[in-house]
Amino acid sequence: MCRTPVPRDPDAMPVIEVTDLRRSYGDHPAVDGVSFAVEEGEIFGIRGPNGAGKTTTVECVEGLRVPDAGRVRVTGLDPVADHKEVTRVPGTQLQKNELQPELTVREALELYAAFYPEPADRRPLAERLGLTPKPHSRFGKLFGGQKQRLSVALALVGSPRIVVLDELTTGLDPRARRETWELIEDIRAGGATVRHHPPRPHPRHRPPAARHRRHAVAVAYDRGILG
């Protein structure tokens, strides 16, 4: 991954700020001097080829990995030094999210909601994601697209300030994909910042020119690709 300078509104306080981030695995530099800033309410994506360091960058932002060098701030907090506080900021949907197979959709939503002081109402959330007919369905019996919808719901039920979505539309049919992008717009309209790692660009994003270079990354915003 290479440095990606990103211009931003100087008067806005970024909710995510990454400066000269570096992280290596042995002799392999996975992230090599990446810098970007994301303002409140933006939709942004990190795109690049396999091995470009996209996942490592996000893990450093979430405090799951410790950078070798550089500076990372999430709502002004250090993900390492202020790890406990930072874990309360984002809601995360993983590409592969596994739950106990006997856990029902309703139980999963109630469990995750209990982790947050001011969770969202699970009922309208479930309705918007097409989970209303499945409240008593067990996770192990759900199809791929249904698991994906539940994973998104679990990322949103805590009313997070930042939403991290990994391979968001994988396993969804075209109609569900369109509805999911509409949901993202609704989330942003509510003030949340959305970070997604898309197999295909968000409808407002242009494909990044850097996507075919091994150690290159593009940070995509709802106003276009920057870097």
Write the layout of secondary structure elements.
Layout: E1 14-25, E2 28-39, E3 43-47, H1 54-62, E4 69-74, H2 83-86, E5 90-93, H3 105-113, H4 122-128, H5 144-156, E6 162-166, H6 174-189, E7 193-197, E8 218-221, E9 224-226
Report the major sheet.
Answer: 6 strands, mixed
Can you list the strand order of the major beta sheet? 5-6-7-3-8-9
**What's the total helix number?**
6
Write the CATH homologous superfamily of the domain at 1-87 and 201-227: P-loop containing nucleotide triphosphate hydrolases
Overall body shape: globular
Region (Disordered): 189-214
Domain ABC transporter: 16-223
Keywords: Antibiotic resistance, ATP-binding, Nucleotide-binding, Transport
Main location: membrane
Write a brief structural summary.
Residues 16-223 form the ABC transporter domain. Pfam families: ABC_tran (PF00005). This protein has 227 residues and is an alpha/beta fold.
Keywords for this entry:
single chain; 227 residues; alpha/beta; Rossmann fold; six-stranded mixed sheet; disordered N terminus
Describe this structure in words.
Keywords: Antibiotic resistance, ATP-binding, Nucleotide-binding, Transport. It is a peripheral membrane protein. It comes from Streptomyces marokkonensis. Residues 16-223 form the ABC transporter domain. Its main location: membrane. This protein is of the alpha/beta class and 227 residues long. It has a domain at 1-87 and 201-227: 3-Layer(aba) Sandwich (Rossmann fold). It is built from 6 helices and 9 strands, in the order βββαβαβαααβαβββ. It has helices at 54-62, 83-86, 105-113, 122-128, 144-156, 174-189, and strands at 14-25, 28-39, 43-47, 69-74, 90-93, 162-166, 193-197, 218-221, 224-226. A 6-stranded mixed beta sheet has the order 5-6-7-3-8-9, covered by helices on one side. It starts with 13 loop residues before the first strand and ends with a strand. The relative contact order is 0.20. The model is unreliable at 1-8, 199-218 and 220-227 (pLDDT under 50).
